From TrEMBL:
Pfam families: Glyco_transf_9 (PF01075). Transmembrane segments: none annotated. InterPro entries: Glyco_trans_9, TPR-like_helical_dom_sf. It comes from the Bacteria. This is Glycosyltransferase family 9 protein.
Length: 381
């Protein structure tokens, strides 16, 4: 009963209520494994990564072999910047369901061919997609290092919608959205295992400020955007993620606050990069507020990249578009909930992954008002 209630509160984004319920659950059952696991999650979501580490170590003491406990501890350590300790533990994500909304799955790939970091010695390496679009955009940055490790050929199997975009990545010989033939590679590696296998002990920006570029239609979008802006500065905005994501209620900004945030945008033309408009009423409100919706004009990420290359600034919640703007080397303001994903750390305005990114953080869980006010002030400067 308690688990269902906690899950419901987390899906609704009410982290503080979920934490109070978990605390009451643990008061009655101090060593209940599920309660301890949820204590770690709610602490993490409240921005208390050291407390989350304590909870996940407690969970490991209760069941040291459970992959979820191992992977969650890795996440809590990486949230504190302790990558050398956290990355090896994060490998247990494959055997857990911590990424159940985008379950890691490697059909047809032989376990014996998984790269373990040994010298590649002229072999062909297949990089395998996992988790979400943003994860793949972030970690494809490591592809150029693989030829230097001896790979004769580097292939990337990516999610539909990313193939054209990733054709611009230096160091990739082949990019495919379809399952590759078994005889086309010698070893394979999940994209998000690259930092561990490359021996990285800290977040690392790409070798190039812009390691992605729009492969096509840039001239079309340059003409289109310049017609809309008439020389004015331009900002693109994304305020909501995929509603199917279990943390979407925490990371997405209510439309009302987005409209308020852009009400005084200091002469900038605003473009909505949001693919799901949230209904015709919201679409009409955006138009009334002078925000140009692109909607179905963006067919895939290469098209979105071509638009972003024409913009002066992107403002986004934690979605793939934020990663895309950072990978393109464009200025991007990222709006984060309290206790954000591990890759954004615990404090500060700068990202070690994307030099052109500025972070705006909730001071308390659910406090988007403070974030919006900070962005409004920044837009005036």
């Amino acid at each position: 009963m308690e688990e269902a209630q906690v899950q419901q509160l987390l899906r609704q984004g009410d982290v503080l209520a979920a934490r109070r319920l978990v605390d009451a659950w643990l008061a009655a059952q101090p060593d209940h494994l599920l309660a301890v696991q949820y204590q770690g999650l709610t602490r993490l979501y409240c921005g208390d990564a050291p407390g989350a580490e304590e909870s996940f170590r407690h969970a490991l003491a209760l069941d040291a072999a459970l992959p979820r406990n191992i992977a969650n501890l890795g996440i809590a350590l990486m949230a504190q910047g302790r990558y050398a300790d956290g990355l090896p533990l994060y490998e247990s994500r494959y055997a857990s369901n911590i990424v159940a909304h985008d379950r890691v799955s490697f059909p047809g790939l032989a376990a014996g061919l998984q790269w373990q970091g040994e010298p590649l010695a002229g072999r062909r390496l297949l990089l395998v997609r996992e988790q979400g679009f943003g994860d793949q955009i972030q970690f494809i940055r490591f592809a150029p290092q693989l030829h230097a490790r001896g790979a004769s050929r580097v292939l990337a199997w990516v999610s539909p919608g990313l193939g054209a975009l990733f054709s611009s990545v230096r160091g990739l010989d082949v990019v495919t959205e379809a399952a590759p033939a078994a005889d086309s590679y010698d070893l394979w590696c999940p994209l998000m295992s690259l930092p561990l296998l490359l021996g990285l002990n800290a977040p690392q920006a790409a070798d190039e400020l812009a390691y992605l570029r729009a492969p096509a239609r840039t001239a079309h979008w340059q003409q289109q955007v310049s017609g809309w802006t008439q020389g004015r500065p331009t900002v693109g905005v994304v305020w909501a993620g995929n509603a199917g994501n279990s943390v979407d209620a925490r990371r997405s900004l209510p439309t009302e606050l987005m409209l308020d945030m852009l009400a005084q945008r200091n002469g900038r033309t605003a473009l909505s990069l949001q693919l799901a408009p949230g209904g015709m009423d919201q679409l009409e409100r955006q138009c009334r507020d002078g925000i140009i919706p692109l909607l179905d004009m963006l067919s895939d990420f290469s098209e979105t990249a071509a638009v972003i290359e024409q913009l002066d600034l992107v403002i986004s919640v934690d979605t793939a578009v934020a990663h895309l703007a950072g990978a393109l080397g464009k200025p991007v303001w990222l709006l984060l909930p309290a206790g954000p994903d591990w890759r954004w750390g615990r404090a500060g305005e700068r990202s070690d992954w994307y030099p052109t990114m500025r972070l705006f953080r909730q001071p308390e869980p659910g406090d988007w008002r403070s974030v919006v006010d900070a962005v409004k002030q920044a837009l005036l400067t």
